[in-house]
Design goal:
Length: 326
């Protein structure tokens, strides 16, 4: 898993009861393991007790911070039989580690479809957040597992969760799964979701040189000139020196004269006489043709999911293919 950003709540910072035991107010619903009326559990050291309390102070069946549990391990490793037994024996599927990682996060990140199915059927929270706010759908997209993504979406996972970090679409672009990218777009993923570190999904796909994902995004109406600190997708393409990527972005209307926060054009990031430098030099000397400019303008006018609109136009198939970049 990629390093992410977040603030850990240390045990010493958590509220405590008069007896000195940690009082937990996590919103995750969870069955309490064990017996007895005290509703307390031991975690880690024998001296550490944790009272399970609701926000109003009453005892309740809620989730809490723990070390990795057998449920986490089974979910991560794809041990479906073991996971089924744990669930049947009353194991909680919503327990979260100190990083707020649930078993559903683990199974999704590893692309363990059957485990995801078992956990969801047992009541796993589909939009649970880990310490940096990422949901199981983000993790499933990071794994590139289209089946896990479909399962989570069918159980109501939000395709555009309110995140300050990478969205599910960002994660799919990082993994290079054009199938996941297409599915997310079909169910309404925000093409311009912005991450303060990565920029838009198009920035991510270009930085990782996932050309299939780039084309899916552009055909869906992603803004080819969207900027992150004034840095466009073409800047990324220039930095990775990918001529095919540069050509694709320019064909879709990428601005070869755009300047980033350093005042540099995309071509400024290429080596003299390199293939990418020659490519930029060609486009500077040979602007797009009138037909290409018309295509760019029409695609901008059709907006998001423009392909669907273009396919319905009463024009010759040859023109539809041209406007669809086929």
């Amino acid at each position: 898993m990629r390093p992410r950003f977040g603030v850990r709540l240390q045990a010493r910072d958590r509220p405590r009861s008069a007896a000195g035991t940690v009082i937990l107010t996590s919103p995750l619903p969870c069955q309490v393991l064990g017996s007895g009326e005290g509703k307390t559990v031991r975690v880690g050291d024998a001296a550490d007790k944790m009272e399970l309390r609701n926000a109003d102070g009453s005892l309740g069946e809620i989730g809490f911070w723990v070390d990795r549990t057998p449920v986490h391990e089974a979910a991560q490793q794809g041990e479906t039989l073991q996971l089924q037994q744990l669930i049947e024996n009353g194991a909680c599927v919503n327990l979260a580690t100190v990083d707020s990682i649930t078993p559903l996060h683990e199974a999704s990140l590893q692309g363990q479809t059957q485990c995801v199915k078992l956990l969801l059927a047992a009541g796993a929270q589909v939009d649970a957040r880990n310490i940096d706010g990422s949901t199981p759908l983000c993790d499933a997209c990071a794994s590139g597992s289209i089946e896990c993504v479909k399962l989570l979406l069918s159980h109501g996972a939000k395709v555009n969760p309110p995140l300050y970090t990478a969205s599910p679409l960002h994660e799919a672009c990082m993994s290079g799964s054009s199938e996941c990218v297409r599915l997310l777009i079909d169910v309404g993923a925000n093409l311009e979701a912005h991450d303060c570190h990565f920029g838009t999904p198009l920035h991510v796909a270009c930085a990782r040189e996932h050309l299939d994902c780039v084309k899916v995004l552009l055909n869906a109406g992603a803004n080819v000139n969207a900027a992150k600190l004034h840095e466009t997708a073409l800047h990324h393409a220039a930095k990775v020196k990918n001529v095919d990527l540069i050509e694709m972005l320019v064909e879709f209307g990428g601005n070869i004269y755009a300047r980033d926060n350093r005042g540099k054009k995309p071509s400024d990031y290429t080596w003299s006489s390199s293939a990418s430098a020659k490519c930029f030099e060609y486009y500077e000397k040979t602007p797009l043709t009138l037909s290409q400019l018309c295509r760019v303008s029409l695609r901008k006018a059709t907006g998001v999911r423009g392909l669907e609109k273009i396919a319905k136009l009463n024009i010759p198939p040859r023109l539809i293919n041209y406007l669809s970049y086929n």
